[in-house]
């Protein structure tokens, strides 16, 4: 009867993170790459959200305050289930942590654990015999993965160019069509030119919502080049808000007062009636004039405030 050695047991690397990490997408992409590279070696790659799930601070030896991810190696050994830290994305040294014997053995300290793919693979080579033995294969998988990522990036670039071109063409067609439709200035008095409404399809009756009404709308928001930055239609989710309470951009608070249920319109919102000098990163740039294709589905009457009774 033979007994498995520790090095022959399954090994995992685990990304422990919180949702608000500054470059969380980068770290997740790196883990996807590592999963591909390490698959022939039999190393499992996992991610664990320490905010949404319980994380034993004693087991993981977290510092008191942390926000950026850690990467651990965990060997499935009944005699030793303690994770070993192999990468740390936190910028400050973790002074309250004493280096483990594993850290000392590979020359690591918490303040010197770069969170890069190259550094992680080199650490695994030192810690996991299977990685060292298959190092040439690992290097080949690295190059293979780079080619795949480059191909995917090129395909994404071409797709975006095609989508941008199509959006621009549609925007130009809409611009031409809108020249034939009456443009109503719905800006506040003395602020003319801030917000405009052009009706595409009239509503069911002439009744319009008043300040305090709960309105239910569908919308597609676009930059002037036709690029869509948000759409309730794509989410298949009706958007609702209380009119005149500054819970939406000023353009909306003004324009929907002049719409009836069932009406479809295009709203053109200058920066002062939209997101101003700051924009709304990452999709809406500073000083952007926005265009919304909207539909007022329905609205409820305004609530009667207690002090009006």
UniProtKB/TrEMBL annotation:
SUPFAM superfamilies membership: FKBP-like (SSF54534)
Gene Ontology CC: cytoplasm
Catalytic activity: [protein]-peptidylproline (omega=180) = [protein]-peptidylproline (omega=0)
Coiled coil: 139-180
Annotated TM spans: none
Annotated EC: 5.2.1.8
Domain PPIase FKBP-type: residue ranges: 212-300
Compositional bias ranges of the Basic and acidic residues kind: 94-105
Enzymatic class: isomerase
Keyword terms: Coiled coil, Isomerase, Rotamase
GO molecular function, one term: peptidyl-prolyl cis-trans isomerase activity
Stored Pfam families: FKBP_C
Region annotated Disordered, chain positions: 85-105
Protein name: peptidylprolyl isomerase
Lineage start: Eukaryota, Sar, Rhizaria, Cercozoa, Chlorarachniophyceae
